[in-house]
């Protein structure tokens, strides 16, 4: 069982809570594959998605995670809601709370926004990404994928390459992987991978070849142009020539290494097409694993809320 009514960040979770999600996700994945195994364990429960930023995978996978368990699922179309009239986040949350919503899944451009919402509503708030802070459910599906492919986190060498500075995915992965016993290396150009992340227990380097050596897992990250103010590197072409991953560069990792990415992928920028489409990639599997993990989170939060 989870200790909080909300799931706001990996930093807040204990190892036992992380593992309980991953263990239940295995059962949930079987239910995605085989529809006859599905049960309406969330029948009578309601879930709403509040996405103040664009999303495909996270938003749809949460919707499916609720529907596969019998929940009533709806979406607050932020662009057509009272938010456009100046309604505050807290007022929006309180309004939805009064409608009897059980789960609020929120993505916001401001770090800490889900935490503010959670303090002001009775509903369970799930952080689907807040600014450059955290993206806990993405990290949890990443953990599930790693555990499924590698069997253990102990001394697992995980290398994350790309726009570290603006990545909530990287932060959540570092928080969790260090708790779970893995070794984490962050690699990127100097303006996108600062040494401040070393305070979280990760190794930071600007040498891509050194970062890839002996890696069990290699995770690419998208260059987040929408969060940058410009001038962090000359242009995408030059960046891809130095830090783009291709088959030759990937061969520096261990022979059985896997390739991951939170997606969407900028083909030809952080990952070259021939590597992206090769058999080392588990990126498509991450999508299904994301639904399974989010099903598990909803189920465990529902248990925490009580019948």
TrEMBL record:
One of its GO terms (molecular function) is amino acid binding. L-aspartate binds at residues 85, 168, 222. It comes from Zhenhengia yiwuensis. Keywords: Pyrimidine biosynthesis, Transferase. Belongs to the aspartate/ornithine carbamoyltransferase superfamily. ATCase family. HAMAP family: Asp_carb_tr. Carbamoyl phosphate binds at residues 57-58, 107, 135, 138, 263-264. This is Aspartate carbamoyltransferase. InterPro entries: Asp/Orn_carbamoyltranf_P-bd, Asp/Orn_carbamoylTrfase, Asp/Orn_carbamoylTrfase_sf, Asp_carbamoyltransf, Asp_carbamoyltransf_Asp/Orn-bd. Pathway: Pyrimidine metabolism; UMP biosynthesis via de novo pathway; (S)-dihydroorotate from bicarbonate: step 2/3.
């Amino acid at each position: 069982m989870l200790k909080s009514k909300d799931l706001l960040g990996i930093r807040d979770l204990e190892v036992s809570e992380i593992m309980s999600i991953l263990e239940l996700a295995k059962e949930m994945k079987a239910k995605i594959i085989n529809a006859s195994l599905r049960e309406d364990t969330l029948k009578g429960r309601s879930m709403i998605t509040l996405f103040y930023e664009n999303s495909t995978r996270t938003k749809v996978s949460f919707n499916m995670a609720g529907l596969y368990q019998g929940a009533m699922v709806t979406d607050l179309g932020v662009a057509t809601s009272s938010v456009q009239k100046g309604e505050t986040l807290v007022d929006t949350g309180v309004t939805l709370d009064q409608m009897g919503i059980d789960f609020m899944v929120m993505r916001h451009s401001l770090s800490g926004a889900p935490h503010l919402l959670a303090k002001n509503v009775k509903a369970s708030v799930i952080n689907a990404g807040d600014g450059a802070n955290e993206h806990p459910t993405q990290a949890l599906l990443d953990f599930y994928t790693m555990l499924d492919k590698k069997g253990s986190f102990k001394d697992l060498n995980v290398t994350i390459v790309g726009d570290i500075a603006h990545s909530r995915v990287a932060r959540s992965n570092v928080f969790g992987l260090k708790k779970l016993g893995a070794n984490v290396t962050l690699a990127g150009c100097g303006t996108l991978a600062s040494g401040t992340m070393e305070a979280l227990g990760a190794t930071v380097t600007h040498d891509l070849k050194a970062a890839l050596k002996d890696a069990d897992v290699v995770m690419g990250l998208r260059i987040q142009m929408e969060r940058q103010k410009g001038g962090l590197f000359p242009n995408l072409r030059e960046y891809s020539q130095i830090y783009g991953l291709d088959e030759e560069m990937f061969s520096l990792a261990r022979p059985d290494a896997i390739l991951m990415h939170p997606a969407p992928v900028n083909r030809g920028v952080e990952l070259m097409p021939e590597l992206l489409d090769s058999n080392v990639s588990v990126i498509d599997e991450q999508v299904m694993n994301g639904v399974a993990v989010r099903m598990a989170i909803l189920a465990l939060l529902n248990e925490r809320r009580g019948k």
